[in-house]
Each structure stands twice: as C-alpha cells, then as structure tokens.
Amino acid sequence: MVIDYALFGDVVTFDTTFSTNKEYRPLGVFIGFNHHRELVIFGAALLYDETADSSRWLFETFLGAHKYKRPATSFTDQDAAMSKALEEVIPETRHGLCTWHLMQNAVKNVGHLMKSGSNFLTNLKKLVYEYVEVKKFEEAWDSLLSTYQANDNSWLQNLYRLKEKWARCYMKSTVTLGIRSTQLSESLNGDLKDYLTCNINLNGFFKRFDKVVNDKWYKELQAEFNAREKLPTILCQTSPMLQQAGKVYTPLMFENFLAEWMKTLSLVIKERNEMGLLREYVVGSFGANELEYKVIGGPSNEVVNCACNHFETVGILCCHTLKVLNNLDIKLILSAYILKRWTRKARD
Predict the structure, then answer these.
(1) Strand runs (DSSP E) across 150-237, as ranges?
(2) Which CATH number does the domain 2-118+173-218 belong to among 3.30.420, 3.40.30, 1.20.1260, 3.30.70?
(3) Which residue among 25, 127, 160, 233 is the one 20 to 30 A from 330 at the CA level?
C-alpha cells in the first residue's frame, strides 16, 4: 500500500459507506486509481466512531504512514465531521465530494422530488457533471428550485453552499483523474460485501480484508500481463501520435486518448489570433456555436493549454488541444503532457 500510494496517491477517496449498521464499528478505506484506472487501496482503519476527533486521528495517522505525502485532491461524502477534520489536517489539499455519495444522499433526502415522471435527478446530474460556465450553472440551479418548489429545502440549501466541492464549473481546475464521475465507491463496497460481514471477529476480518487487497493486486498483475502482450493496432498505422500513445499508455488509458483523438474529426478551428510567439485558437464542433473552447499553443515553445482543463483534471490531452496540435503540424504528444502515472512504465 505504501508503494501504491507513493505512485498513485495524487487523488484519494475516503470511503466509509460499508458501515451502514450503526451497531457496528465503521470501516474507513482510502482508495484511488492505478495506471490501469483500476481501484487501488492505500490504507484502511476500523474506527470507534465517526466523530471529528476520530477522523482527525485517522488522517494524521494515514499521512504519517505515507511519509506525510499529501494528495492533491481528496474526496469524501458529505459528513460534516469528516470534512472539518480533513480541512484541519491537510488544508492545502483540495476537498471534493464524491458524487456517487452525493446521488445516494439525494435519493435519501429529496427522493420525494423524484416521483414518477420527474426529471429532478436528471437535472441534478447535469448540475454536477455538465455545466462548465458558472453563470449557466447558477441559472440552472435557480430553475431547478423553482420548478420543483424547493427553495426552502434545507438539504438542497446545504448542498448549494458546498457547490465548490461538487459542481463541474467550480472544479474544472481540480485534479480529479475522473474519480468524481465514477462509481469507485460502489465498486469497493461490492467487493467488501463479497468477503465481509458485520458479525465476524477481528481475526476473521483481517484475513478477509487481506483477501480483498490481494484480489486488487492480482487484477493489476493481469492488466500488466495483458498490456505487455497486446499493443493496439487500430488506426495506429497511419497516425504517429496514435502509435506513440499505444506504446506509452496502458491499454485503458490509450482507449481514453483514442476517444479524444476521434472527437477531433468533428471539430473545427473557428478563430485564430496571433499572440506574439503564441497563438489563440477557438475550437468547437462543426455546425455548432455552443461549447467553444479557447486553446493557447505555439510550435516553438511546445506549450498548449485548453480552457476546458481536461488535461489538468484527468491527465490526458483533450480533443480541442489535439486539434490544435494537428494544425501546428505537431505529430507526437509533447513529453510535458504525458503523465507517468498513466503509462506502462508507471511502476518503473
């Protein structure tokens, strides 16, 4: 776990969902993504309770075990005590809310707004994942409250106060690796339920939890073997950049990169402006005026930056950037934009 955290601990989710029975002690697990985008466990603890003091002790102990390396971003549920402890122990770490927990809590607290025929949940998901502009987010939020006459709902009021921890438009510069939009916590809880029950003794618990950890390591070994045995060939023969990506990235990350590359086929450069050694491009979909992004790039200094912040959050170049690189006749991924944590050599 120590080595895993040293390599992949840039984004961490802390999960206690498995402790659903209040008569038993909560199990807290620190999890994240490895270079194959598979779940990796960084640490775990059986807690006496979920108070701020217990959470503070846990976070301090976890950091101590990992030589005080702090994650760039940490995701938790909406527990107030946990959030307080996290902000006290690692204030420099960006704190976000796990969106899977958020949706589960929404069903529990405002489920009456999701009755048959209601679009409330769909609209709430759009607020979480889709709006990239603050103004449009705020307008959509006001519309949601008005449509469902929920202006006085205390749970929604509290959720809005935490918007900088879950809304895409407020987190677009935050390193997430895509964790916030996955069912990472749900996956972990499914694995735990396969091996653990609330009434086993402590010795049995450690044996079974060790089995969960070993299964995760075995899955990574399988992914490593498959990655070394197979290199992607589709489309690669005609594209130097795809050839490079196929050799550098793990298979799943290559698929993600390929998806961005394919999107460039429907993109057009709508504006070009000279900025000294740099150029500013406006990139958007063919025939559409919405969701246009500014990309700054220059062939001489090998710098490229997109307003969508996909690279900053997920760690691979976006389709808008790839469109500009092609326009600049740059046929390979610039080395500064290949994160080692997503490559086949992440453990080297």
Answers:
(1) none
(2) 3.30.420
(3) 233
